[in-house]
Specification:
Radius of gyration: 16 Å
CATH class: Alpha Beta
CATH architecture: 3-Layer(aba) Sandwich
Number of domains: 1
Largest sheet: 5 strands, parallel
Strand order of the largest sheet: 2-3-1-4-5
Number of strands: 5
CATH topology: Rossmann fold
Number of helices: 9
CATH superfamily: P-loop containing nucleotide triphosphate hydrolases
Distance between the termini: 16 Å
Oligomer: single chain
Length: 209
């Protein structure tokens, strides 16, 4: 395997259900890097707020134990709560140090989220912005949730994604936007294998220019 510079960070951003999480996990496995789905941090905070805790208190008290079990963080109500707390400037600030420390860890890391390449790791060695058509994303997320037995409809999932997209893109602090030097990867018509292959090729092109 190609020797990695130390530290080495891959930043993968984009909207929900575009495929960034799948791609991030595959890239991390291929290059033996640590992986952090930063959305889980906001989901964990969101879940705490659903239990009655104030958002900032939830963020400041967050621990790695709060990220498990992951399935409990993958529900529609938690996703909606996560999108709401993510617009809170103080909440975002409370989680920045955790993310940056992970990104520069020994051995390298892949982080996926909404503002990794623009705010958390603006000097990441590799930046990808993963997108897909809204209809494709809604269908993917519906199939994922329905496959886990959740009571959802395709129309409801599409509406939820549209609300989250608007909130993430329009927030004043760290809006979801592609970094100027990010490679945009549109997965609308791609298989998982093709999307992963393109992401891996991008990393390899940086390691072996």
């Amino acid at each position: 395997m190609t020797s990695l510079p130390v530290p080495f960070t891959v930043a993968i951003d984009g909207p929900a259900a575009a495929g960034k999480g799948t791609i991030a996990r595959a890239v991390a496995e291929r290059f033996d890097l640590g992986h952090l789905d930063t959305g889980l941090l906001y989901r964990a905070v969101g879940r705490k707020t659903l239990a009655g805790m104030a958002a900032l208190e939830a963020a400041r008290s967050l621990s790695e134990d709060d990220l498990n079990p992951e399935d409990a963080l993958r529900t529609a109500p938690v996703a909606e709560a996560a999108s709401r707390v993510a617009v809170d400037t103080e909440v975002r600030a409370a989680l920045v140090d955790f993310q940056r420390a992970f990104a520069r860890r020994s051995g390298g890391a892949v982080l996926d989220g909404r503002d990794i390449g623009t705010v958390i790791c603006p000097r990441a060695e590799v930046k990808l912005f993963v997108i897909a058509d809204p209809e494709v994303r809604a269908r993917r997320r519906y199939q994922e949730l329905a496959g886990k037995g959740q009571d959802v409809t395709l129309e409801g999932v599409a509406e939820d994604l549209a609300r989250r997209d608007a909130r993430d893109a329009e927030r004043a602090d760290a809006p979801m936007v592609a970094a100027d030097d990010a490679v945009v990867l549109d997965t609308s018509a791609m298989s998982i294998e093709d999307a992963v292959a393109q992401a891996i090729a991008r990393v390899q092109s940086v390691l072996q220019p």
